[in-house]
């Protein structure tokens, strides 16, 4: 009986240590899963915003070459504004949507190369710049199109 006097205390401390390790591991797994889910959501939204930007430009193929900003609710060619000093976070304060139109690029001969870029940053970014992006590139014929209603 005397030999097992301190053994119960050691068993309790060991069990407590194992419980702390398990709770920590579960917490890390849950936080990682939540972070990945948020990233996936943002990636899907960014791709959707890039597709919307491409469709807006596609409706107005007679646009001049240049760099443009396109806000969330922009649906007309008049909503495209020249980039100038930068677009800023023009969609929900999270995303930046930019449209670049180039004529006769090496990848799109006799057409316009249109790039829709949506970028954002989150806690995974090590700098203050946007480290995530969704980019779509398409070649559009240079026709003086009339907007599709």
Concise summary:
The protein has one helix at about 5-60; strands at about 65-70, 80, 95-105, 110-120, 130-140. It has about 150 residues and is α+β, with helices and mostly antiparallel strands.
Your description of this structure?
- The protein is α+β, with helices and mostly antiparallel strands and 149 residues long.
- It is 36% helix and 26% strand.
- It has one domain (2-141).
- A 5-stranded antiparallel β-sheet has the order 2-1-3-4-5.
Task: Give a topology summary.
Layout: H1 7-59, E1 66-69, E2 81-82, E3 96-105, E4 108-120, E5 132-141
Structural class: alpha+beta
- Uncertain segments are none
Nearest-integer average pLDDT: 82
How many runs of DSSP E, i.e. beta strands? 5
Instruction: Indicate the proportion of strand residues.
Output: 25-35%
Strand order within the widest beta sheet: 2-1-3-4-5
Radius of gyration: 26 Å
Question: How much helicity do the residues have?
Answer: 25-40%
Number of helices: 1
Shape: rod-shaped
Order of helices and strands: HEEEEE
- Report the sheet with the most strands, covering strand number, pairing sense and barrel closure: 5 strands, antiparallel
| Total individual domains | 1
How far apart are the first and last residues' alpha carbons, in Å? 91 Å
């Amino acid at each position: 009986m005397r030999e097992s006097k301190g053994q119960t205390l050691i068993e309790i401390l060991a069990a407590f240590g194992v419980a702390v390790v398990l709770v920590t591991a579960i917490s890390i797994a849950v936080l990682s899963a939540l972070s990945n889910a948020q990233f996936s959501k943002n990636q899907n939204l960014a791709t959707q915003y890039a597709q919307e930007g491409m469709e807006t430009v596609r409706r107005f193929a007679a646009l001049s070459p240049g760099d443009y900003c396109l806000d969330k609710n922009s649906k007309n060619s008049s909503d495209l504004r020249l980039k100038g000093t930068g677009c800023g976070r023009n969609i929900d304060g999270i995303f930046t949507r930019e449209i670049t139109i180039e004529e006769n690029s090496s990848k799109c001969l006799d057409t316009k190369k249109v790039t829709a870029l949506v970028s954002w940053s989150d806690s995974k970014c090590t700098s203050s710049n946007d480290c995530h992006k969704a980019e779509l590139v398409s070649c559009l014929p240079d026709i003086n199109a009339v907007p599709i209603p």
